[in-house]
From TrEMBL:
Occurrences of domain Pyridine nucleotide-disulphide oxidoreductase dimerisation (ranges): 333-431
Protein name as catalogued: Glutathione-disulfide reductase
Enzyme Commission no: 1.8.1.7
Residues annotated as domain FAD/NAD(P)-binding: 3-310
């Protein structure tokens, strides 16, 4: 069978590219070996945020009133499973409705324009690789007992005591959800630094709050051994301690899926961070492209980037002239409780730039945060000293995701603190709180 474009990987990166190309009249096929919607819909932000919905509501209630009823994990898990199933079905159906040929199975290259799935050959003028990433495995005695974020996010029975290996973005989300559901969490991190890319002052406030809620952080601890005990629980031995736990989840980074594709017959080069691509996502074979978590595009490996790259690739395949992809203002949220958000230039990047200034604003008394009992809320804004434009921000708050997105619009539009005074926001709202940025200048 012959197509204009064949996409390998039906996650948000591959899916957004397929929809974009089909809308432009290309004859498109997409291959998926596991589940439509990939990591995001089935094992990533969709179930994570569905579980977090109950966890953060529980936390917010407890900030405002006494005697909040405990959460039921099985109800949370049922809610999440329903959301995931509906999103997964919608994802697959939307591809079919758009006239895209959907193929289920594992794809490998036969040559540079032919893909093999279940013994059937498919040919295309161009091929796009969007095969995503998988959890990084650690190797030590008993490491086979470790599970990953996917099993945490779909379990209907969370033990009352768990261990999480790694203190990164996924770890803080899972820890916050589990803690609010009444599970005791121990985080094992091999060095001193948690959430390395985020503002370390705000990270320390978050760690303290989680410690107060019962989380144990074991920094500078490397796991050496896990032993299964007769009651189904585990004994964990690190270089510094030994303790019992009901389950161990390893969230120590992710590895691009580039093996098992027979890429060498297609002349596609791979490096340590994924498939090598140029600024237009073109691989070492000019008719083959790669995007999302499987490629080394020098941008964060996040859903929003994979979707954006899919849109750009859809546009650029239609036009004869190629331009390097221009990425908009980067925005990121750690979905912990409270959340940590970052947008534009980070405080770490700003601290080396004399033309930039970091202003810390205590937003606990701003209306939104005061009425929500958001008593840890703190905002750090990065200004350009000359133009007074906002160029970055980091925030710790229950509503950090929304604030970061408002600030992303302001940064993208080159808004100054003074320009905010020209806006008539509905009052009192989270947007109208932004006047406070001007007042604090
Ligand atoms: C727990 C967790 C939480 C996350 N939360 C967030 C978040 O809040 N915000 C955010 O922006 N990002 C988040 N991420 C990251 C985000 O999920 C990824 O960046 C995103 O899924 C990348 O999309 P993708 O399409 O490149 O890859 P994927 O979604 O991984 O899709 C790749 C697909 O390709 C398929 N595939 C692979 N090889 C083959 C083959 N040979 N043949 C056929 N099919 C194949 C796979 O089965 C998979 O479905 C999270 C990740 C995890 C694990
Ligand atoms: N909200 C979001 O945008 C979001 C949420 C979840 C995941 N993601 C994406 O998924 C990726 C993977 O997330 P992640 O949390 O697995 O990775 P991460 O890179 O954020 O964190 C991994 C952590 O594990 C630690 N680590 C590494 N080896 C270890 C060892 N042997 N023992 C103990 N600790 C060890 C690292 O130092 C780091 O702190 C992220 O980088 C991001 O691209 C994004």
């Amino acid at each position: 069978m012959q197509y204009d474009v064949l996409i390998v990987g039906g996650g948000v990166g591959g899916g957004s590219t397929a929809l974009n190309l089909a809308a432009r009249g290309f004859k498109v096929a997409i291959v998926e070996e596991r589940d439509w919607g990939g990591t995001t819909i089935n094992r990533g932000s969709t179930p994570k945020r569905a579980l977090l919905a109950s966890a953060e509501t529980h936390f917010r209630m407890a900030q405002l009133v006494e005697n909040v009823a405990p959460l039921s994990w099985s109800e949370m898990a049922n809610h999440s499973a329903k959301i995931v199933l509906a999103a997964n079905q919608r994802y697959g159906n939307n591809l079919v409705k758009a006239g895209i040929t959907t193929i289920e199975g594992h794809a490998t290259f036969v040559n540079s324009n032919t893909i093999l799935v279940h013994g059937q050959k498919y040919q295309a003028k161009r091929i796009i690789l969007a095969t995503g990433a998988r959890p990084r495995e650690l190797e030590f005695s008993g490491s086979q007992y470790m599970e990953h974020s996917a099993s945490f996010l779909k379990t209907s029975n969370l033990p009352d005591n768990i261990t999480i290996v790694g203190a990164g973005i996924i770890a803080f989300a899972l820890t916050s959800i589990a803690t609010e559901a009444g599970t005791k969490v121990t985080i094992v991190q091999h060095n001193q630094r948690a959430l390395g890319i985020l503002d370390q002052g705000l990270v320390q406030i978050l760690i303290k709050r989680l410690e107060n809620a019962g989380v144990v952080f074991k920094f500078d601890n490397t796991i050496q051994k896990i032993t299964e005990l007769s009651n189904g629980s585990y004994q964990v031995t690190t270089n510094q301690s030994q303790f019992k736990t009901g389950a161990v989840y390893c969230v120590a980074g992710r590895i691009p899926n580039t093996e098992d594709l027979n890429l060498s017959v297609a002349g596609v080069k791979v490096g340590l961070k994924g498939i090598k691509v140029d600024k237009n996502l073109r691989t070492s074979n000019p008719q083959i492209f790669a995007l999302g978590d499987c490629c080394d595009a020098s941008v964060p490996k996040l859903s929003n980037y994979a979707i954006y790259q899919g849109k750009c690739l859809g546009n650029s395949l239609e036009k004869p002239v190629q331009f390097p992809i221009k990425y908009p203002t980067p925005a990121l949220t750690v979905f912990s409780i409270p959340k940590l958000g970052q947008v534009g230039i980070s405080t770490q990047q700003a601290s080396n730039k004399p033309e930039l200034e970091i202003k810390t604003i205590d937003i606990k008394n701003w209306q939104t945060y005061a009425r929500n009992g958001d008593d840890l809320a703190e905002l750090k804004i990065v200004f350009n000293k000359g133009s007074q434009q906002i160029v970055g921000a980091e925030v710790l708050s229950q509503d950090a995701d929304q604030l970061v997105d408002y600030l992303s619009l302001l940064i993208q539009q080159h808004v100054t603190a003074n320009d905010l005074q020209q806006q008539l926001f509905a009052y009192p709202s989270q947007a109208s709180d932004l006047y406070g940025i001007w007042q604090s200048r």
